[in-house]
Each structure stands twice: as C-alpha cells, then as structure tokens.
Design brief:
With 85 residues, this protein is mostly helical. The protein is built from three helices and no strands.
C-alpha cells in the first residue's frame, strides 16, 4: 500500500469518527431537551391530570379492604376516585 492510499484511508476513518461524534451529540442534545422539557412540566404540576372515561368502580375485595384507610374508603363510598393511600 503506497503512502497516498494510507492518507486517504486515514482521512476517511478520521472523518467517520468526527461525523459520528457530531451526529451523536446532535441527536442526544435534541432528545435530551425534549425529555427535560417533559420532566419539567410533570414536576411543576401539583398532581398529574388524568382524564378518565366512564364511572369509578371501587375495589371491594376483602384483601384490598383490609389494607385500606378510612379516608380512602370514604372517598370510594362517595363515588370519588381516591386521592389518599
């Protein structure tokens, strides 16, 4: 292999490495910004907003009821989605 071919090969390898590094940086920066903006929105909210369709149906199994607080049971009996553990 002559010296000119070695330089061309070296240039191609170096260009590929630089291109890969730049491409990886650009892709990680754009996905990182999207993720941080979503997490910033979710941490700013006091409670997550969930839109549910239909009616609330409480879990009345004996195993569930044994570990349930009085506040939660009162919310379930009132037909509300429980907000307390």
């Amino acid at each position: 292999m002559n010296i000119a071919k070695k330089w061309v090969l070296l240039a191609v390898v170096a260009g590929s490495m630089i291109g890969g590094a730049v491409g990886g940086t650009v892709l990680s920066a754009s996905s990182g910004n999207a993720q941080s903006s979503n997490s910033a929105q979710s941490t700013n909210a006091a409670a997550p907003t969930v839109i549910r369709s239909g009616t609330f149906k409480p879990n009345e199994s004996k195993a569930h009821e044994a570990n349930e607080s009085a506040q939660r049971e009162a919310q379930e009996d009132a037909g509300q989605v429980p907000t307390v553990p």
